[in-house]
Amino acid sequence: MAMRLLPALLALLAAAPAVARAEIAVFTDGRILKVEDAYLAGGQIVLELPGDGRMVVPAVRIDRVVGDEVEEPPAPELRLDCGAGWADDPLPEWVPYRQAIADAARASGLHPWLLAVLVEAESDFEPRALSRAGAAGLTQLMPAAALDEGVADVFDPVQNLRGGAAHLRALLDRFGSLALALAAYNAGGATVERYEGIPPFRETRAYVRRILAAFCPRPVPVSSTTSKALAQRPSS
């Protein structure tokens, strides 16, 4: 019987109607721009600016788009950085794409459970998931990351998993911390560098806490949305 590891987040966001909201568009060159909306249109991303302005840029110029909602005051950070490296720790048979996840994780030197949790958080294991801003597939690769990792078809599960795993590995090598790498995966590397740590965005901090709580060994606090199946994984 198939069980879900974490709730579907971005797939639901992609299906939601367009509404005015504050977001941060993070460019691949490190620039950060506050926008009211960002959406994919062909090979471009349209950035709706405050005051009815608009900017249209090639999709490959945008690293990530993250909600501009800040925790005030910031909740205590989950400061656990457990080992993210490859381990021969097989996923249960009921995990979707378990072999492809394991293969991609091994190729990038990641723990298969970590990649499985990330996939669940990003797409709920839906290979056709597409966010409004253009994050696509199982690991919700943005066009820039897909180009960097040589992913020709973001909706092909094997290619997408390989690209997402390689992207996370690059962020781990860049920041030297699983928590910071996850924050960069969600909010962009330039954002992590600007704040010299996990950005204060509510979305990003919740994302990091959720994945660390699900992946890292106990006694990590487990939220109500964290999978019991992963939370009860034996510690290595």
Q: In the CATH scheme, what's the topology name of the largest domain? A: Lysozyme
Largest sheet: 3 strands, antiparallel
The overall strand count is 6
What string gives the helices and strands in order?
HEEEEEEHHHHHHHH
Q: What's the helical proportion of residues?
A: 25-40%
Mean pLDDT: 83
Level-1 CATH class name of the largest domain: Mainly Alpha
Our count of helices gives: 9
The tally of domains stands at 2
Form type? globular
Class based on secondary structure composition and strand pairing: alpha+beta
Overall CATH architecture of the largest domain: Orthogonal Bundle
Strand content: 5-15%
What would you say this structure looks like, in words?
By secondary structure, this protein is an alpha+beta fold. The protein is 38% helix and 14% strand. It has a three-stranded antiparallel β-sheet with strand order 2-1-6. Helix 2 crosses helix 3 (112-123), helix 5 crosses helix 6 and helix 6 (178-187) crosses helix 7 (189-195). The radius of gyration is 17 Å and the shape is globular. The two termini are 26 Å apart. Residues 1-20 and 218-236 have low confidence and may be disordered.
Short structural description:
The protein is of the alpha+beta class and 236 residues long. The protein is built from nine helices and six strands.
Furnish the topology, listing elements before pairings:
Layout (H helix, E strand, L loop, with lengths): L9 H6 L7 E5 L4 E4 L1 E5 L2 E6 L3 E6 L3 E6 L30 H11 L3 H12 L19 H6 L8 H19 L2 H10 L1 H7 L6 H14 L12 H4 L5
Antiparallel strand pairs: 1-2, 1-6, 3-4, 4-5
